[in-house]
Amino acid sequence: MSRLRVGHTLQRGRQRGRPRGFDREVYKQRNTVERCIDLLKQWRGRAIRTDKLAGVYQAALNLAGILIWTRR
Question: Which of 22, 30, 57, 63 shows a CA-CA span of 20 to 30 A to 41?
């Protein structure tokens, strides 16, 4: 174990594991949002040049959202 890691462990003392401010419900919600964004990014990977236009890009995101929602 490196010196920095040992020092950090000694500083924390008995307080190991998750930080005090950890909220399980908030973490679950954040995880859900991040997974949804990742799905949208995967669908966005099939983009074409016309997606440079704002309207087309928004329509593609809406379509991807609808398709993801209906599959669930």
Answer: 22
Give the CA distances from residue 6 to residues 1, 15, 16, 39, 49, in Å, rounded to whole numbers and listed in that order: 7, 14, 13, 39, 52
pLDDT over threshold 60, residue 9: yes
Query: Mean pLDDT over residues 1-26, rounded?
Result: 66
CA–CA distance from 43 to each of 6, 27, 31, 57 (Å)?
Answer: 44, 25, 19, 12
Q: Quick check: helix, strand or coil at residue 72?
A: coil
**What global pTM score does this model have?**
0.51
